């Protein structure tokens, strides 16, 4: 149990939520040079980068909006009773500084940052950024042994390339991660896939390497509990990465994203599936593709950080 007052979030009873400098969930800001880094067990990190976006940009602004909305997160999970900030030392580790003019340099910077986080023994919880951010994170976490993955999304992100040869976009990160040996495809499950498609190339690849794809029709027919039971069976007790694209949620509840697809779950089920990650050996997680220009109200960002809190509870409880 964490009894160090340094790592407790600021309470709304002591400082109004609209006041003070916002950090993720009102936790202390501990950068990688801070002597207190060695005491951190779970670090929340922003990756404000969207150079992999192929249509509607804006997720580079996601971490800042999510930080602001995360001031509404309180100390206790209302459904489970878990108090994660008393279970482990959590901190806001700040943002990775990308190079918006150089995609490869940005990925190298992200990998270097997360390599340091891993070396410090910290479990990272990330606010993106577009979904290409997951690839350089996996390059830091998925070696020497490939990880299992539970992936919530409306898209597989398994395409070979875009525009006749571009291999690094937000639609390709997990194809690259499997090719680079960062993910074990037989231990990867993708939940919520839907929408119109260019072709079946991504799904054909998934079938060829053993990735389990659960389309949204199957998710709705079976229900969250049954689907999540299968997902946990697929990853077993293996070290697992959780990647959650906010466009998994129906755009009626999460309009602030670049590639929305209708027919997804509502906000309750979006929270429910994250809560059902209990028992999974999570070694890292992300919530990506929140795009503030498409939801200035902050509702999408608040749903995003609420999902992150559920993942944090499971990481702390594990």
UniProtKB/TrEMBL annotation:
The Gene Ontology biological process annotation of the record reads: putrescine biosynthetic process from arginine, via agmatine
Which class of enzymes does this protein belong to?
hydrolase
Q: What PROSITE patterns has UniProt attached to this entry? A: ARGINASE_1 (PS01053), ARGINASE_2 (PS51409)
This protein's superkingdom? Bacteria
Residue ranges that the Swiss-Prot or TrEMBL entry lists as coiled coil: none
> Which Gene3D superfamilies does this UniProt record tie to the protein?
Ureohydrolase domain (3.40.800.10)
Looking up Pfam families in the UniProt record yields:
Arginase
Q: Known EC number(s)?
A: 3.5.3.11
The residues that hold Mn(2+) are 131, 153, 155, 157, 245, 247
Bound how, and how many: what does the cofactor note say? Binds 2 manganese ions per subunit.
Cofactor entry? Mn(2+)
GO MF terms here are: agmatinase activity; metal ion binding
Write the record's keywords in alphabetical order, separated by commas. Hydrolase, Manganese, Metal-binding
What family does this chain come from, according to its entry? Belongs to the arginase family. Agmatinase subfamily.
Q: What is this protein called?
A: Agmatinase
């Amino acid at each position: 149990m964490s009894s160090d007052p340094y790592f407790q979030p600021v309470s709304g009873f002591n400082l109004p939520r609209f006041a003070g400098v916002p950090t993720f969930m009102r936790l202390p800001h501990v950068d990688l040079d801070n002597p207190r880094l060695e005491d951190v067990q779970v670090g929340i990190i922003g990756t404000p980068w969207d150079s992999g976006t192929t249509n509607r940009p804006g997720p580079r602004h996601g971490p800042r909006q999510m930080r602001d909305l995360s001031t509404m997160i309180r100390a206790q999970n209302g459904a489970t009773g878990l108090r994660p900030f008393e279970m482990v030392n959590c901190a806001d580790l700040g943002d990775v500084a990308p190079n918006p003019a150089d995609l490869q340099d940005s990925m190298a910077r992200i990998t270097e940052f997360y390599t340091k986080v891993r070396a410090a023994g910290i479990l990272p919880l990330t606010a993106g950024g577009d979904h290409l951010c997951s690839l350089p994170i996996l390059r830091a976490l998925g070696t020497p042994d490939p990880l299992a993955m539970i992936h919530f999304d409306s898209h597989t992100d398994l395409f070979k390339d875009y525009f006749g040869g571009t291999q690094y976009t937000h639609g390709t990160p997990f194809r690259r991660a499997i090719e680079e040996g960062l993910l074990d495809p037989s231990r990867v499950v993708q939940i919520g896939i839907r929408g119109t498609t260019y072709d079946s190339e991504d799904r054909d690849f998934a079938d060829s390497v053993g990735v389990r794809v659960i389309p949204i029709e199957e998710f709705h027919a079976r229900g969250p509990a049954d689907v999540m039971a299968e997902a946990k069976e697929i990853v077993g007790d293996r070290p697992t990465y959780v990647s959650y694209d906010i466009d998994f949620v129906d755009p009626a509840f999460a309009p602030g994203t670049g590639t929305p697809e209708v027919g997804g779950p509502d906000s309750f089920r979006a929270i429910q599936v994250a809560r059902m990650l209990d028992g999974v050996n999570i070694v890292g997680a992300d919530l990506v593709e929140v795009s503030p220009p498409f939801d200035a109200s902050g509702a999408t960002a608040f749903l995003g950080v609420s999902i992150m809190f559920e993942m944090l509870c499971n990481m702390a409880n594990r």
